[in-house]
Amino acid sequence: MNQTERNLLMLLEKPYEDVSRPRGRDRVGYDLTTAKPLRVTTRVSGPVNWVTVPERPDLTVQSLGRATTIRKGGVFSFFVQQHRRAARDLCQLFMKSKDAEDLMQIAAWCKDRVNEGLFNYAFCFTIVHRKDLRSMRLPTVVEMFPNKFVPMEALTKAQVEVNRAPLDQKEPVIIDHGPDFATTTIKAEHRVSYWREDYGLNSHHWHWHLVFPIDMGVNRDRKGELFFFMHSQMLARYDMERLSVGLNRVVKYDNWRAPIDDGYFSKLTVNNSGRAWGTRQDDTVMQDFRRNDFGLDFFTVAEMEQWRSRLLDAIHQGFMVNREGNRVPLSDDVTSGKRGIDILGDAFEADADLSVNSQFYGDLHNLLHVAISFSHDPDFAHKEEVGVMGESATAMRDPVFYRLHRFVDDVFQQYKLTLPPYSMDDLSLPGVVVERAGIRQGDQTDILVTGWSNREFEASRGIDFAAEMSVLLRLQHIDHLPFNYHIMVNNQTGADKQVTVRIFLAPRKNERGDDMSFMDQRLLWAEMDKFTVSLKSGSNHIERMSKDSSITNPNEFTFRDLEQGRSSDPGTPENAEFDFCGCGWPQHLLVPRGKPEGMAYQLFVMITDFEKDKVEQTASDRRCANGVSFCGILDGKYPDKRPMGFPFDRRPPPRVMDSELTKVADLARLDNILLHNITVRFTDEILQK
Ligand code: CUO
Description:
The chain is 28% helix and 18% strand. The chain is an alpha+beta fold. It has a 7-stranded mixed sheet with strand order 3-9-8-19-16-11-12. A hairpin with a 5-residue loop joins strand 4 (319-321) and strand 5. The radius of gyration is 25 Å and the shape is globular. The chain starts with a helix and ends with a strand. The chain binds CU2-O2 cluster. CU2-O2 cluster is lined by residues 205, 209, 231, 365, 369, 392, 395, 405. Pfam families: Hemocyanin_C, Hemocyanin_M, Hemocyanin_N. It is found in: Secreted.
């Protein structure tokens, strides 16, 4: 990273401090004195590397458009259309900059004039979506906004330690956090707090919505479908965690007049001045939205119910109706044009630019987030802040997130169940036999081991502790020991063959402890990996490392990594290839927790014909090595022609090879599919990796 890029990146640090405050290892401060800053520069001690930002007569309050409509210090919520419009204006201003230096000057000028969350969002959006800045990496959102991940209590403790430390202390102040969650064991839902409140899970969700924004003029390949698929997969994984701690699978929230059983009190703050997120008592009922502080028009639960009916009508009638009153058929059986699942996803999430008729189908999923997040104070009577459901970096902490998204998924699934089952031609691959498959972890076979690990983040990059020393947050999180898949495949086609290997994992037993039917187990299958291999004729031994998974992102950069150029220097051709890293499921959440005594899982390995799966990309399309199943390819097409979640996204065919199909094992009678039992054992110890 060159100095200009470094100076640019530093603007993401200390979001709540004046732009003139020194930041980063190099103590960079931005001097806008010639550009008439908004306030007098705060006095700072110690040397500062001043970056002079020249006067920019071209920048006026008008340049900011609607970006100033969000109050500073408050929440920036992408679920609110007015906030998205503010973001669009600021992103447009940033996107128009000529180069990195120009962007740095514009951004430094804007920094203290707009809402902090909005600023960082627009800034990150620009880095992700501008081709000339692809070599830059984003630091983890945990370091930008520690207050969205760690309770204020822990951060206050850090401040006390900093104040006590000698001024010349060189060692960092370390604050341990976790396992310590927002609930106690009195609440059954507490048992999955370790997962809901995981930093990686929440930063993944923030990052995913940054890469797939709505109403921002971003129309990426199969965006609506990916909204469905990625969230559906998160639910499959959540349900696996629930089953591992003796909880039933999550129940959809679809009676919006009934109380929401579980409340949520996040203990987090929305900014550094200690303003808390709104909280929700147990048994709160969602209300009509009638607040005047959020720039959002009033809306009612009845309107949302109407949008839901229209979406369900469309699904069951097989078409939507566009603004001109014409029918838009919903079908995935297309060779060109948009798939039904994409059309539905765009109208449901919703993206007003892409929805076939946003007036008619509304903004259902987004406004459900909003209505739930204000259910504790729907008319602003108590002047309470929005709840965590209103922000993508915090929403997944709340148990109601999963109940809401189970409803969203249920609507998508209703559509999927209208589609015909896959044919034998879709499912089989003549001449290719999966003979054996299994897992090796150390010297163990077919046993995966989970436990805890620690990860350190620098809190002083997001919060100004007014001290020279670094302040590290050490977060404990669930993790697993790395492992390898071993798959033996016999290629009897008589020639080399390019194939796609698809690996899924699901629990073997349901809540009752019974083996599951195909339909009972269908939504529990989590994609573990998907990759292409060239089979030679005869026997093949495929070995694949867990860290190479197609869903995960192994590169979560801290500010320090980026400053030091660690694993992030785009100077080498290999790294230039692997732009767009940063999106993807956290590596440490790849394996579900399992049980101390071991939990029975099934590994599903399927081999399909790459000829039928492949998607032509243009030579210039950049790809990241990882996270592709959840994040796609930035400038290119989603690299698998099959519907996402194939073959579990549809109802199964009633018969396979002349016998009834009731269980997944019946499908595995096909030669190209193998089902294999494995065990996941949770150790409740720090893992020695
Ligand atoms: Cu990701 Cu509702 O879409 O949170």
